[in-house]
Amino acid sequence: MVSANDVKDYISQGLACDYVQVLGDDGQHFEAVIVSPMFAGRNMVQQHQLVYQALGDRMRQEIHALSMRTFTPEAWAKANI
Fold it and tell me: What CATH number should be reported for the domain holding residue 25?
């Protein structure tokens, strides 16, 4: 079973991130907040595609669902989270 920490590591290893938080305790459904300079100039769909690329086949095999909020470092600095 995959843990939230595993998903966090997968994302961090495949994508340059300033901050990653992943929550989830059932081994299949996860929620993530991801801050990356790679998101600059990209729309939300493109940002999510970068995360999916970082996860690769794990999204099909190990992770059933991933809800995510993505931010550039600048947007994260302005967010009240």
Answer: 3.30.300.90
- From the list 1, 12, 4, 2, the residue with the least C-alpha distance to 54 is 12
Contact assessment for residue 60 and residue 71, using Cβ atoms and an 8 Å cutoff: no
How would you write the pLDDT of the chain (81 residues) with one tens digit per residue?
A: 899 999 999 999 999 999 999 999 788 899 999 999 999 999 999 999 999 999 999 988 889 899 999 999 999 999 876
Q: What residue numbers bound the domain in which 45 lies? A: 4-76
For 75, list phi and psi in degrees, rounded to 5.
-65, -35
pTM: 0.93
On whether the CB atoms of residues 65 and 31 are closer than 8 A, the answer is no
Total structural domains in the chain? 1
